[in-house]
Specification:
single chain, alpha/beta, Leucine Aminopeptidase, subunit E, domain 1, Aminopeptidase, 2 domains, 9-stranded mixed sheet, 6-stranded mixed sheet, 15 helices, elongated
């Protein structure tokens, strides 16, 4: 879907209809050279009074040219300076459109590289629009960032542009209606993107899944006319010393199966493939950026639907590893497909394993919709992920793998059950369920991104619909491990 083009320029010359955004690090430190501003603006220019504040500086004529000037401070009390820069840019773009401006101009000729790339993200992601089914399609507003030199921060902006491109693809796939984006279609889309990025791709259909013993994925997808898939994408650059396996839950839609969700709870279930989108688009970005680390991305994809062939409660499924599961709730299906994905990942003997999934509503109860939960088997690896998320400016919070809760997963009829004994601790139970599929001693992280991954409402600079959450964090993690 269309996103604004972030152009750079050296020097600023007024054009009538310009909407000008001026950023300040704090009350006294501008991110721009005041010499570029016309005198009527300088006469009234002040930074916003409050931390993180915004204000209208000027609105009127400079000679014959109409000019609108807005100022914003990045030193907010609540959000990070990075988030404030993104939000300021996204909001300015929205307001510029509403004001009928001809273009948005952001003066950054005295800004550090981190401010510039954050503004770039704010413009591109904040201006993202999913309009495939809209009759009235709006044109993108031109955006110009004025830098000290036209090619200043060229490499930083180019790298960030790769990340934003794959975040945009993830958002497009998430926003596709579930009657259009079904398992075969999503598998084709992942294969196309991965091949274009230079990864080796293998797609297993339902017949191959049966041959390979992927009973968790087959069980969940059995009731749908659109049969399940698993996509395996591999990137193996010469000289890579580490191998990172990424596994992502790809439920293109989740009705809950025979444990049917209420109608309101189904409304956002097209986003139940957010883990797979994060994993696959991160793998594509890693390959495109030529990071020196081996990557295996595995995305089990299915629809959890109701039909005469759907798996009922108390079914027993045999997963790829041979481990059996008693299904006590058909709406706890994501962990069933992840079991196959994790088994396939560990067969390749990676140095590290990460799975990402919109797994539990309990993660949202614990952390809200803007934070994701991380569970880790290795303290050092968990710390590295949290550091990577800080670099990416995506919010994760560590939750415990509380061993006593493992008792709740014991079954009299299979190796384990797929749910615990009661309402509480559901995010922990979900993580503990997955833990046995990764051998002891192999560093493993479980990312429950149910909040930000499945959030439909606005989130900071990211508008309504899919967010592409997790792509940047996984790429930053790969950089740290390489």
């Amino acid at each position: 879907m269309p996103v604004p083009v972030f152009q750079t320029s050296a020097g600023y010359q007024i054009k009538s209809g310009d909407y000008l955004l001026l950023l300040f690090q704090n009350e006294k430190t501008p991110c721009f050279d005041k010499k570029a501003l016309p005198q009527p603006v300088l006469d009234v220019l002040k930074a916003p009074k409050d931390k993180g504040g915004v204000s209208t500086v000027f609105r009127g004529l400079v000679g014959k040219d109409e000019l609108f000037v807005r100022a914003a401070r990045l030193d907010g009390k609540i959000q990070t300076a990075a988030t404030n820069a993104k939000v300021a840019a996204a909001n300015a773009l929205d307001l510029a459109r509403k004001e009928g401006a001809m273009r948005l101009v952001i003066l950054l000729d005295a800004a550090a590289s981190d401010v510039v790339v954050n503004v770039q993200e704010g413009v591109v992601m904040g201006g993202y629009v999913y309009d495939r089914f809209l009759s009235d399609k709006k044109k993108s507003l031109p955006v110009v960032a004025v830098l000290s030199e036209k090619n200043a921060f060229k490499s930083e902006l180019a790298k960030n542009n790769v990340l934003l491109d794959y975040m945009s693809i993830a958002r497009d796939l998430l926003n596709e209606p579930p009657n259009y984006m079904r398992p075969p279609q999503l598998a084709d889309a992942y294969a196309k993107a991965a091949k274009a990025a230079g990864l080796k791709v293998t797609v297993w259909d339902e017949k191959q899944l049966a041959k390979e013993g992927c009973g968790g994925t087959l069980g969940v997808g059995k009731g749908s006319a659109a049969q399940p898939r698993i996509v395996i994408a591999e990137y193996a650059p010469r000289g890579a010393k580490k191998h990172l396996a990424l596994v992502g839950k790809g439920l293109t839609f989740d009705t809950g199966g025979y444990c049917l969700k209420p109608g309101d709870s189904q409304a956002s279930m097209q986003f139940d493939m957010a883990g797979s989108a994060a994993v696959m688009m991160a793998a594509c970005a890693i390959a495109k950026l030529k990071l020196p680390i081996r990557i295996t991305a595995i995305t089990p994809i299915a629809e959890n639907m109701i039909s005469g062939d759907s798996f009922p409660t108390t079914s027993i499924l045999t997963t790829r590893s041979g481990r059996t599961i008693e299904v006590r709730n058909t709406d706890a299906e994501g962990r069933l497909v992840l079991a196959d994905g994790l088994a396939l990942a560990v067969e390749r003997k990676p140095d590290y394993v990460v799975d990402a999934a919109t797994l539990t509503g309990a993660a949202c109860v614990a952390l809200g919709n803007d934070l994701a939960a991380v569970f880790g088997s290795d303290a050092k690896f968990t710390k590295t992920l949290l550091e990577a998320s800080a670099v990416a400016d995506e919010c994760f919070w560590e939750l415990p793998l509380f061993a006593p809760y493992r008792e709740q997963l014991k079954s009299d009829y299979a190796d384990c059950k797929n749910i615990g004994a009661g309402r509480y601790g559901g995010a922990i139970i979900g993580a503990l369920f997955l833990e046995p599929w990764v051998p002891e001693g192999m560093p493993w992280l479980h990312l429950d991104i149910a909040g930000p991954g499945g959030k439909e409402a606005d989130m900071a600079h990211l508008g309504k619909g899919g967010k592409g959450f997790g792509v940047k964090t996984l790429v930053a993690l790969a950089e740290k491990l390489a």
